[in-house]
Design brief:
single chain; alpha/beta; five-stranded mixed β-sheet; 6 helices; binds 5-hydroxymethyluridine-2'-deoxy-5'-monophosphate; binds zinc ion
Length: 190
């Protein structure tokens, strides 16, 4: 997980940085990735905002979940919304495995995978998901992910939490994560 966290820190997404690290049964790293634009798409030329809708009522929240009756369709949404362009961390981790099989592997992700990533993880044979944050647990995309994973019996486990925000972690914190994973593995093997 510490490698996934480090990887996430390379993301240019101002609202949510995500990292993923795929390891095989021998704990060899097979691929890593973070959420970013496709190769060659410059970070300063494409949008990093979200354009779910425009809201002209008092709440003005602009969030995905807003049910305001006055919400309007955003014009030129495709020019304003990062979701058209960003490659998710899990996709990049698989692509960065350079054709090595990820079947039977574990993916460590800093955020619970969305439904699109979940489809990709299932299709590539990932056996286990360990996630740190589930901050989008109320989104339909996350609910759909969990339904698929439960249905096909791909295990997903929440990583042990440190009493710290993921992005304020020091090297010492990252070491503590590695130690806690080693302890968990030891007790699972005994
Ligand atoms: O599975 C995922 N993998 C992944 O890389 N992401 C990225 C895509 C976006 O850049 C960001 C989510 O942004 P936001 O929290 O503003 O909706 O996280 C998001 C998810 C699931 O939400
Ligand atoms: Zn995703």
């Amino acid at each position: 997980m510490s490698l996934a966290i480090l990887s996430s820190q390379r993301s240019k997404d101002p609202s949510t940085q995500v990292g993923a690290c795929i390891v095989n049964k021998d704990k060899r790293v097979i691929g890593m990735g973070y959420n970013g634009l496709p190769d060659g798409c410059k970070d300063d030329r494409f949008p990093w905002g979200k354009a779910a809708h425009e809201c002209c009522c008092e709440c003005g929240c602009g969030c995905d979940e807003c049910q305001c009756s006055k919400r309007r369709k955003v014009e030129y949404k495709w020019l304003k919304d990062k979701n058209f362009y960003v490659c998710h961390a899990e996709l990049n981790a698989i692509v960065n495995s350079y054709g090595n099989s990820v079947r039977g592997c574990t993916v460590y992700v800093t955020l619970f995978p969305c439904n699109e990533c979940t489809k990709l993880l299932i299709q590539s044979g990932i056996a286990r998901i360990v996630y740190y944050s589930d901050k989008h647990k109320d989104r339909d995309t996350t609910k759909a992910s969990k339904w698929m994973l439960d249905y096909v019996k791909v295990e997903y486990t929440e990583h042990k939490k440190l009493d710290k925000n993921i992005f304020d972690m020091t090297n010492e914190d990252l070491k503590r994560i590695v130690e806690s994973e080693d302890q968990q593995d030891e007790s699972a093997n005994n």
